[in-house]
Amino acid sequence: MLRALTALVFAASSIATGCATTTPNLDAKFGHAVTAARALQTINPDASRNTDPVAGIDGESAGHSIDRYHDSFKTPPSTFSVINIGEGISSGGQ
């Protein structure tokens, strides 16, 4: 009984010690990698301030394009066709 109690106290103190440790060096830099990656991948950070409409395609054509894009996920086209070469040809003099 005493051994079990000692083991329980030891396990509880080990768990509590693990929770008490902090990582000030890592916590101070938390999120910097994500922020830096996002900044490097942004071509124009002021794009949301541009009030000029997009030129080059009218709304009806854009709508049809989006509809075809969405429909392509309902029944995707086949990506390959099977070609059987030599099927039905017997070999030898049978």
Topology:
Layout: H1 2-20, H2 24-28, H3 32-41, H4 59-74
Instruction: State the major sheet.
Output: none
Topology order in helix (H) and strand (E) letters: HHHH
Helix proportion range: 40-55%
Kindly report the average pLDDT value: 79
Class by helix and strand content? mainly alpha
Number of helices: 4
Shape: flat
How far is the N terminus from the C terminus? 87 Å
Strand residue content? under 5%
The unreliable regions are none
What is the gyration radius calculated from CA atoms?
33 Å
Oligomer: single chain
Beta strands, count: 0
Summarize the structure.
With 94 residues, the chain is an all-alpha fold. It has helices spanning 2-20, 24-28, 32-41, 59-74.
In words, what does this structure look like?
The protein is 53% helix and 0% strand. With 94 residues, it is mainly alpha-helical. It is flat. 0% of the residues are buried. The mean pLDDT is 79.
Key terms:
single chain, 94 residues, mainly alpha, 53% helix
